[in-house]
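Field notebook, page 542. I keep forgetting to write these up properly, so this time I am using the form the group agreed on. The chain and the ligand, iron/sulfur cluster, are recorded exactly as supplied. Prediction of the bound pose follows.
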Amino acid sequence: MHHLQCILQAQRCLGWGPLASVSWLLLRTCRAHSSFSGTTYPSPEGQQEDGARKDFSSRLATGPTFQHFLRSASVPQEKLASADVVDPPPYLTVDELLGKQRKVYLETYGCQMNVNDTEIAWSILQKSGYLRTSNLQEADVILLVTCSIREKAEQTIWNRLHQLKALKTKRLRSRVPLKIGILGCMAERLKEEILNREKMVDILAGPDAYRDLPRLLTVAESGQQAANVLLSLDETYADVMPVQTSPSATSAFVSIMRGCDNMCSYCIVPFTRGRERSRPVASILEEVRKLSEQGLKEVTLLGQNVNSYRDNSEVQFSNAVSTNLSRGFSTNYKTKQGGLRFAHLLDQVSRIDPEMRIRFTSPHPKDFPDEVLQLIHERDNICKQIHLPAQSGSSRVLEAMRRGYSREAYVELIHHIRESIPGVSLSSDFIAGFCGETEEDHLQTVSLLREVQYNIGFLFAYSMRQLSKRSATELCGRNDGNLKVIFPDVEMEDTTDSGLRVRAQPGDYVLVKITSASSQTLRGHVLCRTTLKDSSAYCSPE
Ligand code: 5AD
Ligand code: SF4
């Protein structure tokens, strides 16, 4: 019988979970893998390395001091900018942070930001003495740069991990043990679930923790799992120039901002990539100049919200001029002020090389003030192409999605863009099947597609993410086995007072019939309010 009894937690199940501000660093000891337990791995460096490892292990056991965490949490960007080799933590020497020519195989999933992040991670590892390989079989370290935007993207990684597990197990004892790392959004979203579920994952690094990769890999060398999923308010990797991997490339991506403050209700990005922050104008211009000198013909400016760009690094521009939004659009956050905006950056970037095409992705429709549209119209080398993610054609659904605009405001913006930039190419993203979407809502999306006549459309089936799996009309409790159980907040019978109809309150025991299960959560419908003693009559061990 699939009845489970849950104790309600003193919390309503809101779409926005507590993860919003969670950021943490985990350094985990996994004795089963550890050289501390007496198991030593054969390695080319032989006895000498073994001794060094023991020495390292005893220093690591002492652990970093509180001062160390304070120090690494507030390393100013200027300091890192000039230093190729970062100060080692107290339990490591500079030599131990070096890659010893280990070969790294990087595999990228998801969006263009991840492609760029892969090159940032590689640039950091290369400076630390690692080599890169495109041959999986010869790799000493395999790093997957992951995506969490939809469930399917995550499932692909879980499947890949199973394949890599086989590779790790089959590894010859005469070689250094293979290390596997999960980087990016999935590392940030699932944190210890990955380490617990897939014991062969050695390294976990969130999108803001790539500078820490040499340390994480060194810790992993000693046979321990190492993780850093701290999100940052100011990390933009401004000083880390991605390595240009293909000498014959004609186009490149330049990251200009990271993170997202919009909190659209279906989207995991604000939780995996953190708050919005922009890379200083000067460092972007420097990178674009270098690319132009290398003869590149096209640069795409990248960011989760590329046109929300705002460089606040220069004091003289932190004035109180408030932000111009597209007409009829609003934000979910308090209006920001000051800083150098996207129009300024676009103007500067496009002046560097009149023969270099400039594109940008992915923008939010709220940030298209007239000055941006005018610039795109006037400047020959800024492509007349705008991605304008609508997500839905129904104002009702747009409100539920917290997009900050109605269908009418969106359509008005389309007309305004077409008037301002004749011949402009338009593309969009749409999500079908969002919570509560009706057939009528869906038809409105279809009618928007017909009305606008986009050049390209990216169409997604809604994929429920962990933070939005529960709604305000649902409750959550834990069963005896400590599994999370979600069920609708409806009236039920109270077995302690027959005939009485009640709604569950925090602290109540309720009997729930389980109807579905995901990897971490059970769902069901509530049968009655009960007591611990009475509930045992309903539950069989089966
Ligand atoms: N389910 C389906 N699609 C999503 N997107 C973002 N989150 C989800 C989700 N949970 C889509 C949006 C966004 C694009 C990058 O991915 O359309 O614009
Ligand atoms: Fe996600 Fe884009 Fe909305 Fe940000 S603006 S929450 S990245 S869909």
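OBSERVATIONS:
- The pocket of iron/sulfur cluster (ligand 2) is lined by residues 260, 262-264, 267, 269-270, 304-305, 364 (CB under 6 Å).
- The chain has a mean pLDDT of 82.
FOLLOW-UP: compare against the apo run.
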